[in-house]
Design goal:
InterPro entries: MetI-like, MetI-like_sf
Structural class: mainly alpha
Membrane topology: Multi-pass membrane protein
Radius of gyration: 26 Å
CATH topology of the largest domain: MetI-like fold
CATH class of the largest domain: Mainly Alpha
Number of domains: 2
Number of strands: 0
Largest sheet: none
Main location: membrane
Protein name: Carbohydrate ABC transporter permease
Family: Belongs to the binding-protein-dependent transport system permease family.
Length: 293
């Protein structure tokens, strides 16, 4: 028999009716998310749309949809301002920063997460405190060191400062994830004859792969978009990353807004595509890696 409440409809019908009802909070949530997505997606659409217009059309009516797109801005970006070379410089620098941060930060995180030693809490305190230091406060001493070492306007002149700047974040995220790995797994590896290096490369690195993936993504994006360091440490054309190229376009070709929109599109779109494909690793790495600190 169907269970019913006296003087009311059957329980299964009440449950179905409750499921079909949309609460006010849900409606408000969707309204806020829609408004937020429009403020994020529309500016990107506006830039890409204007990249297919000549500068005159951008100035006269920048909000109109480009029904007759032109490719002159993209051909100019590769021919006149050599954006391909800047792309290569950005990939070399940002890729090197990611490799160094994961290697050094991974080993440091492994030591902090799995070893008990005097001063361990002090190291954590120093790492957290270093996050409060703004980047521009260290520009003068870092630039002085680069001059002494002869690394200004070289790839290493940007790789080393960015590596040092991203190490704290990487160590804290990776150490938090590694602290959640069961000790039984470590003891079993020791019984099988693993040393510390084999334990890190064969056990901790594969198990902590989501944390390494999310860390590498954030470090790459921060390094790729670091205009402040690029303008100071590497200002020569042969080592100039793509974000510094945008600044030069705005100064040399300040009235060519179509070219500027094309350069911005070429800079941002590849990063967005990569992010869409690896978004699941970011979410998994941050949620599971934040269990312990």
């Amino acid at each position: 028999m169907q269970q019913t409440v006296r003087g009311s409809v059957p329980l299964h019908r009440r449950a179905a009716k409750r499921k079909g009802r949309i609460s006010i909070s849900t409606i408000l949530m969707y309204i806020v998310l829609t408004a937020w997505s429009l403020t994020t997606i529309y500016p990107m659409f506006w830039v890409i749309n204007n990249s297919f217009k000549v500068s005159r059309d951008v100035m006269n009516n920048s909000f109109a949809v480009s029904w007759n797109p032109v490719m002159v801005n993209y051909t100019t970006a590769f021919d006149r301002i050599n954006i391909g070379k800047s792309y290569l410089n950005s990939l070399i620098m940002s890729g090197s920063v990611v490799i160094l941060v994961l290697l050094v930060g991974g080993l440091a995180a492994y030591v902090l997460a799995r070893f008990q030693f005097r001063g361990r809490r002090w190291i954590y305190s120093i790492l957290y405190a270093s996050l409060l230091i703004p980047a521009f406060a260290t520009v003068v001493p870092v630039y002085d060191l680069l001059i002494r070492w002869g690394l200004v306007n070289t790839h290493l002149g940007l790789i080393l400062p960015q590596t040092a700047g991203n190490l704290t974040f990487a160590i804290l995220v990776l150490a938090g994830y590694m602290a959640t790995i069961p000790k039984d797994l470590e003891e079993a590896a020791f019984i099988d004859g693993c040393n510390r290096w084999s334990l890190f490369t064969r056990i901790f690195f594969p198990v902590a792969r989501p944390a390494f993936a999310s860390t590498s993504i954030f470090v790459f994006l921060w390094s790729y978009n670091d205009l402040f360091s690029a303008l100071i440490f590497v200002n020569k054309e042969n080592v100039r990353p793509i974000v510094a190229l945008l600044s030069e376009i705005s100064s040399q070709y300040g009235t060519d807004f179509g070219l500027m929109a094309a350069a911005v599109s070429l800079t941002v779109v590849p990063v967005l595509i990569v992010y869409l494909f690896i978004q699941k690793y970011i979410e998994k790495g941050l949620t599971e890696g934040a269990v312990k600190g």
